[in-house]
Structures are given as C-alpha cells and as structure tokens.
Design goal:
By secondary structure, the chain is an alpha+beta fold. The protein has a single domain, classed as GIY-YIG endonuclease (3-Layer(aba) Sandwich). The protein contains four helices and three strands, in the order ββααβαα. The protein has a three-stranded antiparallel beta sheet with strand order 2-1-3, with helices on both faces. The model has no long low-confidence stretch (mean pLDDT 95).
C-alpha cells in the first residue's frame, strides 16, 4: 500500500455548517482546523468536528471525490454523514 489521501467533512455541529477538504494527513489537518490555524471559512464559522472521511490511495481519485462532494446538494451530504456517523460523533478522537 502506498500513501493515503483523505476526503473529509467537518461540521460546526449536528446539521450545522459543513466544510469539505482533501489532505494526505488527516490527523494533522483536522488538528490544524481545531487549533484555529487554518485561516478562513472553518475558523470564521467554528467548523471543527470531523464527521466524515474516506481514504484513497490515489490523489487524483481523492480530488475528484472532493469536487463531487462539493457539487452535491446539502441533503445528500447530510445523508452520507448520517450513514457513516449517525450520532455525529467527532471522528478525530479515533486518530488521537
């Protein structure tokens, strides 16, 4: 297996503001969001809960998936989160 890439969704709270991103180090990137080191949308709207992620081994596939997610309507995004994480638990706790 090679390097992993992740598409992830952060939320401000259950059914709250969502942010979709891609990274090669999910633990580090989510920590940066939580610590307020990422200036912009997530800091402005307090989006810090890791509620969904997918792992890929090809960066192109990960970026394609991220772009597709961003095109989806909100109800589809909420459904995919609920399928993986019905209680909207902060999945970051699984990495620390």
């Amino acid at each position: 297996m090679g390097k992993s890439y992740y598409v992830y969704i952060l939320a401000s709270k259950r059914n709250g503001t969502l942010y979709i991103g891609v990274t090669n180090d999910l633990s580090r990137r989510v920590w940066e969001h939580k610590a307020g080191l990422v200036v912009g949308f997530t800091k402005k709207y307090n989006v810090k809960l890791l509620v969904y992620y997918e792992e890929f081994y090809d960066i192109k596939e990960a970026i394609t998936r991220e772009k597709r997610f961003k095109e989806w309507n909100r109800s589809w995004k909420l459904r995919v989160i609920e399928e993986m994480n019905p209680h909207w638990r902060d999945l970051y706790e699984d990495f620390v």
